[in-house]
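cron nightly-structures :: item 1 of 1
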Amino acid sequence: MIERLMWQLLAAAALFALASALRTGHAPALPRFEPDIWRAIAFLVVLSSFGGYGFYIACLRQRGVTYTAVMFYLTPPCAMLWAALQFGDGVDTAGWIGGGLAALGVMLALRVVGQRREDAGPGASADAAAG
């Protein structure tokens, strides 16, 4: 899984570099060699690319499409909380209400998926039960 993901990310990087070169007329420059910049890049590569896509692929394989699609509704509240913790952004009342509604919706949807799985019998996937 990690090897395939690495090849996908390398192909995307090559395509973006080619697009940049075609648009600007020269190869994209590497960032300055400053430790903070490279720590940030490493953080983004590890957390966003390998963490995010790796979790997505693993979730698809183990839980199915329906479960994975439902979990995507938690992305905005998680990003809101991450920004609050990482950067000190404030979370207003609308943010808390929206995050709570998203969590409630995910909880209700997963309950329905679980009930359909039980109704379909042993060994049935949630996607087969939902379809």
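cron nightly-structures :: done
Residues 28 and 57 are 30 Å apart (CA to CA).
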